[in-house]
Design a protein that fits this description.
Layout: H1 6-18, H2 22-31, E1 44-48, E2 50-66, E3 70-73, E4 87-89, E5 96-97, E6 102-106, E7 109-115, H3 132-143, H4 157-170, E8 183-186, E9 190-195, E10 208-213, E11 217-223, E12 236-240, E13 246-254, E14 279-285, E15 297-314, E16 319-320, E17 326-333, E18 338-351, E19 356-360, E20 369-373
Parallel strand pairs: 7-8
Antiparallel strand pairs: 1-20, 2-11, 2-15, 3-10, 4-6, 5-9, 6-7, 9-10, 11-14, 12-13, 12-15, 13-14, 15-19, 16-17, 17-18, 17-20, 18-19
Helix pairs in contact: 3-4
Length: about 375
């Protein structure tokens, strides 16, 4: 059983002694056995002793954002073959561009977003050698409904027919081939963050037109090095968003090295002050985030330790003893009355979010009731 953290115990002692009348009440309970009746004016209730898994959770501040950093680069333009290639349309900042939609336009013709990690680097037509770019093309055409079952890394006659159908539907020149610059491959949907180029200007071949991110919300947190060893990729967390909602998340990455934080980052010390090293970590939200508060601060409850199948009671059931330890009052049914028995306990992990604490003590068992202050 893990030892309770001293800082957590100190906080609990203050909380337990702060309730009106409860400090005197707990002292009376600990001086006698069995414990006396509650003093007049102090209202109490009862809570069940349960056997469960107790998680130690710590809340840290994080920064809400979006995963990934994408650049839309024009390798060339099919419109340039007949003359000057001019940017005639760019999506507004904040626009989400999905598969099959135009990501920009040149000379009035759309350049379309397809999904894939291999960037476009050549014209694609019947007879070209197979490769990952052709595989991506086939998958996207199939996903858009132009080539059901189309797969593989070869530009087949079926691929040519699918390209022809796609070009007809999107207003592109119908050639059955895909010139370099007619499609852009990105890993997924693009959330536009910046227009680097401008409409009316020439296509800057080889340099970005747009900058953006994915649409997958994530949270960047800076962990205290003492907390970081207990946090691993795959750990579940709870993120309190700017609108007050608490959404589940999962840790996707924890840096292996501590870093010196930038001055003022995530609400840390002011510039010029001495700052302690931190360990960066990334949390992915498990539900879609539709808010517009990019770079907003959030609270992240991280599980840093778990004890399985242990006894637990509400934290409010703990009574401070003169020796610095804790006890609980067990409620037992007697003949015509309730017997209150004070049991010294050892504490383990504290779940400050759920309000439970791991305990063990002589005769303490699941299914018993312990005394707690009433709300």
């Amino acid at each position: 059983m893990a030892d309770a953290r001293p800082a957590v115990l100190g906080t609990l002692v203050v909380l337990l002694l702060a309730g009106a009348g409860w400090a005197g009440y707990s002292a009376d309970l600990l001086r006698t056995h069995p414990a006396p009746a509650a003093p007049p004016g102090v209202t109490t209730g009862r809570a069940l002793v349960v056997r469960t898994d107790v998680q130690q959770q710590t809340t840290v501040t994080g920064m809400l954002g979006y995963a990934g950093s994408y650049s839309v680069i024009a390798p060339g333009s099919p419109a340039a073959a007949g003359g000057t290639a001019t940017i005639t349309w760019l999506p507004a900042i904040g626009t989400v561009v999905s598969r099959g939609q135009r990501v920009y336009a040149v000379n009035g013709l759309p350049v379309v977003l397809f999904y894939g990690r291999q960037p476009a680097w050549r014209a694609l037509a019947f007879g070209v050698s197979g490769g990952p770019d052709v595989r991506q093309l086939n998958r996207n055409l199939a996903a858009l409904g132009y080539g059901p079952g189309l797969a593989g890394d070869q530009f087949s006659l079926a691929t040519q027919q699918a390209v022809t159908s796609w070009q007809q539907a999107t207003g592109l020149p119908v050639t059955g081939t895909v010139p370099l610059g007619q499609i852009v491959f990105l890993p997924g949907p693009l959330l536009v963050a910046q227009q680097v180029a401008a409409t009316g200007g020439p296509v800057p071949a080889g340099t970005p037109l747009l900058q953006g991110t994915s649409t997958d919300a994530d949270v960047q947190v800076l962990l205290d090095p003492g907390l970081a060893p207990g946090v691993r990729a795959g750990n579940r967390v709870l993120v309190t968003l700017p609108n007050g909602a608490a959404d589940p998340g999962v840790v996707t990455q924890v840096s292996r090295v501590a870093q010196n934080p930038a001055s003022g980052s995530q609400g840390q010390d002011s510039p010029g002050s001495q700052q302690s090293p931190v360990v960066p970590a990334t949390v992915r939200l498990l539900r879609p985030w539709h808010g517009a508060l990019d770079q907003a601060q959030v609270q992240v409850a991280i599980t840093s330790a778990v004890d399985w199948n242990v006894l637990a009671v509400p934290i409010t059931a703990l009574l401070a003893r003169p020796d610095g330890q804790f006890a609980v009052v067990v409620l037992e049914r007697g003949v015509g009355r309730t017997i209150r028995r004070t049991v010294p306990v050892q504490t383990g992990l504290f779940d400050e979010i759920a309000g439970d604490v791991e305990v063990s003590g002589p005769g303490l068992a699941a299914g018993q009731y312990v005394e707690v202050p009433s709300p």
